Structure formats: structure tokens, C-alpha cells
Amino acid sequence: MSGIIGKKVGMTSIFSADGRNVACTLIEAGPCVVTQVKNVETDGYNAVQLAYGERKEKNTPKPLIGHFKKAGTTPKQKVVEFRDFRVEFEGQVDLGATVKASEVFVEGDFIDAIGTSKGKGFQGVVKRHGFGGVGGQTHGQHNRQRHPGSIGACSWPSRVFKGMRMAGRTGGNRVKVLNLRILKVYPEKNLLLVSGSVPGHKNSYVILEK
């Protein structure tokens, strides 16, 4: 497999061999169930669909219940399709099989983490875009330290250009963080210790790719 679905447990730090304090994230990766195997003959491309996280049957749409029963598993919360899985797994992944983190990753691997960033709500330009603010209270200004300042031109073009960085909803976006190193694998608990930070809040779903 080229990846797996997991859940962010939280952040901690460990000491490396040279004595540096390394910030890291603990992720519960899998076990995931193969709910669909696609191939060129029937679907036009090769892919494996994985499912993770338990879901109540009463809260699951009936078409999805049938989809999971075909794979011989209970309803799942998160379903992700991995298209570019490794060649050695081609033709060896069966419907209903269980994929564990220790089967996909080893210590020292570099992975990409995909998640939904924390939502910050409606924020101003200083927090959202890193503006420095208008500055000192000169020219008769009052309580404008964190305001955006001028946003338009003069009589031409007599409008505000599209794409101008202004206040608005911040966070809640799909974010991909590249080249995070796996520091430790705990196969008995399906846990991965990954260097650096991973997008999302605690208990949020994360997609890990090689």
C-alpha cells in the first residue's frame, strides 16, 4: 500500500541520539479494512479503497451498509481511495483484508500527512495573513493598530482588486505536510511516532502517504 488512514492522538517530544529535543506527533494508524479493489478492466485504473473507524449502523446510509457488507466488515467512519499503491502489493490485496501500520511503514520512512487544519473562525489580517498592522498612532489615527490599511487605488481602477488579502474565515482547509519522518513504530498498538506537526485537532482523521 502507498498509505493508510489514521487518527491524530496528540503531540509530545522525545530526545534524539545526539541529545536534541524533537517535537513529534503520535498517530493511531489503522488497522484499516480493504472495502474495494479497483482494476483497469472494470474501473479504468488500479486503486485500493480503505476504511477506518467504527460507525453506528443506524447513522449509516443503506447503500454504504451494503458496500461494507460486501467486504465483510462493519460500517466505517472514514473511507479513502489510494490509487498509486506499490507494485509488490498489486494483486495481493483482497477484499475484506486488514491493513496495519507495521505492514506499510518502517522506522526511518518519510511520509506525507494530509488533514483538515484547525478552524479559527473569522479573523483579521494580522492573524490570517501575518500583517504588521498600520503602525503608530500618527495622522490622527485611533485604535487602528491591527487594521489592514489602504486596500484600493485612486480614481483608477476605482475598485478593490480581486484576491486582495483581507479578513475572513481562517483554517478548516485541507493541508498536506511533506516529508515527515517516522521515528518509532509500535505495531502492537498500531501507533506511529512522526516528527513535526500534523494538521488537525486531536482525534481528527489523517491520511498518511509514502
Account of the protein in words:
By secondary structure, this protein is mainly beta. It has four helices and twelve strands; from the N terminus they run βββαβαββαββαββββ. It has helices spanning 40-43, 62-70, 101-104, 125-129; strands at 3-15, 21-29, 32-38, 47-54, 76-82, 98-99, 110-116, 121-123, 168-170, 174-186, 191-195, 205-209. Strands 1-2-11-10-7-12 form a six-stranded antiparallel β-barrel. A hairpin with a 5-residue loop joins strand 1 (3-15) and strand 2. The N and C termini lie close together (9 Å). Belongs to the universal ribosomal protein uL3 family. Keywords: Ribonucleoprotein, Ribosomal protein, RNA-binding, rRNA-binding. InterPro entries: Ribosomal_uL3 (IPR000597), Ribosomal_uL3_bac/org-type (IPR019927), Ribosomal_uL3_CS (IPR019926), Transl_B-barrel_sf (IPR009000). It holds the Pfam family Ribosomal_L3.
Poorly predicted ranges: none
* SSE sequence, one letter per element: EEEHEHEEHEEHEEEE
Number of helices: 4
Termini separation (Å)?
9 Å
Average pLDDT over all residues: 87
Specify the structural class: mainly beta
Give, in spatial order, the strands making up the sheet with the most strands.
1-2-11-10-7-12
Number of DSSP E strands: 12
Morphology call: extended
| Helix content estimate | 10-25%
Subunit structure: Part of the 50S ribosomal subunit. Forms a cluster with proteins L14 and L19.
Keywords: Ribonucleoprotein, Ribosomal protein, RNA-binding, rRNA-binding
Organism: Algoriphagus limi
Family: Belongs to the universal ribosomal protein uL3 family.
